[in-house]
Fold:
Amino acid sequence: MDNRAGRLGFFRIFIYEFETWQDEGVMLDLKSEQVPWANGNAWAPCIEEKMMDGQYKYFFYYSGNSKEGKGKQIGVATSYSPTGPFTDLGHPIITASPVERGQQIDVDVFTDPVSDKSYLYWGNGYMAGAELNKDMLSVKKNTITVMTPQGALCRIMLIGKHLMYSIVRGFTIFCGR
Structure:
């Protein structure tokens, strides 16, 4: 990942048996026509594997600066291999803050193992989430929910939204600084 403006994007690095690392090159270049809506500043990605039409498809969610100068927005690129090549959707899927402040960063995806529904989480100074449509390329707008705890440190910044599933119950872990 490259979090500095003016730099490329995301790089593929793979671990073989936790001993040998292999650089696989650039997987998504936000300063090229590969991502037509962005001009760089790749940030905080996640990837989700989903069985679709009998084969695994990989959804790479990330944030980047919009060419229109509207701050960070969330995009998605897809591939039928975790090593790529990845193809960007062509436009961001989250463009505005549901709380009218902060940027759209620190994306994460959770797929409920019981319902098989997938959810997108993001935020900067807040935590938001929404159910993804079955295509995994768009959110159900009417499900966008702000989940920032009242009085939490999250008023400043949220980093690392993670949702896990437990047999006992589902829960969210997040940290603020």
